[in-house]
Structures are given as C-alpha cells and as structure tokens.
Amino acid sequence: MIIDGGSCTNVSSTTLVSKLSLPTQDHPNPYKPRWLNKGSEVRVDKQCIVSFSIVNVYKDEVLCDVVPMDACHLLLGRPWEFDRNTTHQGMDNTYSFRHNGKKVTLTPLTPNQRNYGSPNMPEKIPKEEGNEVPAEVKPLIQKYREVFADELPSGLPPLTGIEQHIELVPGSVLPNRPAYRCDPPATKELLHQIEELLTKGCVRESLSPCVVPALLVPKSNGTWRMCTDSTAINNITVKYRFPIPRLDDMLDELSGATVFSKIDLR
Fold first, then answer.
1. Domain ranges in the chain?
2. What is the pLDDT of residues 106-123, one digit of tens each?
3. CATH fold of 141-152+165-252, please?
4. Least trusted range by pLDDT, from 109-123, 131-145, 173-187
C-alpha cells in the first residue's frame, strides 16, 4: 500500500481485484492514465470498493479505480486524505487522523521492514493514541488542577516595569503586506478566533504601522490554529546580541526525565 498526496484518485491494481474476486462497477467517467503502468496507455473504466485493515487498529474501505499498475496493490490518494482529514508530517513521513473517535498515526516501514510478503514483517505500523491519563499521574493533576485549566485566563499579564519593544534597523522601510486570500469558512473562523481573544482581553487592536498578515493552519485534531506571518518584519528587525537558548539544547538537559507538566509554563 502507498499513500500518495499527488494522486487525484484512489487506485487498486487489477491483480488485487482478481485475486480477491472483488465485485466491480462501471466507472462514471472513464479516462486514460499514462503514469501508473510501465506499458502504454490503458483505459480506466471500472471501480471497486476495497476493504482493508492495518494491525487490527485501523479498518476502513475506499472506492478505488481499477488499474493494471506496477507500483503497488492499493494506492490511497487525495480522496482518501480529504475524507479522513489527514495531517501529513513531512519530516517523519507520517499520516495522522481521527477514526471512530480515536487518533491513528500511520508510520512508514523502515528499510529493514521493506521485504514485502515476508511472514516475519513487524505489525507495529500504526499506533493509537488515547486520552487516558496514567493512574500514577492523576493525584498530581488533582493537586494542581488550577494549573491544568481547559482555557487560558482572561486578560493580559500584569505590567512588570520592564516594557519590551521591537527594535528595527534604522532607515528600513516598513512592510505593508496584503492579507492572505481565504475562503468564506476560513474567514469566518479567523474572525471568530479574533473576537474570542478580544473578548477575553488577550489581544487588543494594534496601533503599529506595520501590517503582519494572519493565516490559519490545520491542527492534528481537525481544528484550526491562527498564526501570524512575521517574515517581512523579521527581515528588518535588529537581531539579539545574546542568542535565545536552542530548544534541542534545553531538551538535552532534561535527559532521563519521564514526566512533564505545564506547571512551569503557567
């Protein structure tokens, strides 16, 4: 099986359909692809529903076009990614989504596991992430329950007497970038998040002459995170004389720790 975000359709091989004797139906819009098979062009005029499961954790069925392809037996393309609202992590090459109320993460095979058809192939391909809290951690959470609030407190932090400001390179031209184009649902979600932050007092109207556009990025749980694109203003910002500690260096200092919380962050 291959997951291919560049494919505009889900595909099953004719070999798979023949071996499993899967029932087929006429394709509503036949076409002729040229990239799935080593030979010349073929005509795709059949479809079938393929049921599959991975390690008994993820079970599903997809409607596929039947094609005599050499790449694999089952190719999950953009229709599967769209229907399952998947999130692709490019660095790890993993696909995460929610299925039947649970989070599923599909990970690729390692080079040592790519002996297709081997009876000794490991089965730990997907992993299921639940929301259960370990019993030994529950007393700690109960003791500091005010720290683990579901929502952030209203209002901005109190003044400390040390006010910060962004120092710009002298003589630089202030950027004025246009807003990102987005569809009506995204615009509605963006306005909703801004109104919520204004109501809580977490943000206030900016008086800065610099325009920093905002945009939405999808989160792994299907919701949206609002981000700001500060690339233009960062290009004319005076760099810190003392570097901020690197995240990987800070994590190295936590070597051996097994339990983490949000107490210090709050």
1. 2-129, 141-152+165-252
2. 888 766 555 544 444 444
3. HIV Type 1 Reverse Transcriptase; Chain A, domain 1 (3.10.10)
4. 109-123
- Within 10 A of 135 (CB to CB), how many other CB atoms are there? 7
d(CA 266, CA 242): 25
What DSSP designation does 246 have? P
Q: What is the spatial distance between Cα 225 and Cα 217, in angstroms, rounded to a whole number?
A: 5
Q: Do 236 and 168 touch, CB atoms closer than 8 A?
A: yes
Give the integer Cα–Cα distance in Å for 71 and 33: 14
Residue 185, H or E segment: helix 184-200
3-class secondary-structure state, position 96: strand
Convert 207-237 to b/e letters by CB count within 10 Å (16 or more is b): eeeeeeeebbeeeeeeebeeeeeeebbeebe
Looking at 4-43, which runs of residues are DSSP E strands?
A: 11-13, 24-31
Give me 266's structure tokens: 């709050």
Residues 6+ apart with CB under 8 A from 127: 57, 104, 105, 107
Predicted confidence (pLDDT) per residue in 193-233, tens digit? 988 888 888 888 888 777 788 888 888 888 889 988 888 88
Could you tell me the fold of the domain covering 2-129?
A: Cathepsin D, subunit A; domain 1 (2.40.70)
φ/ψ of residue 80, rounded to 5: -65, -45
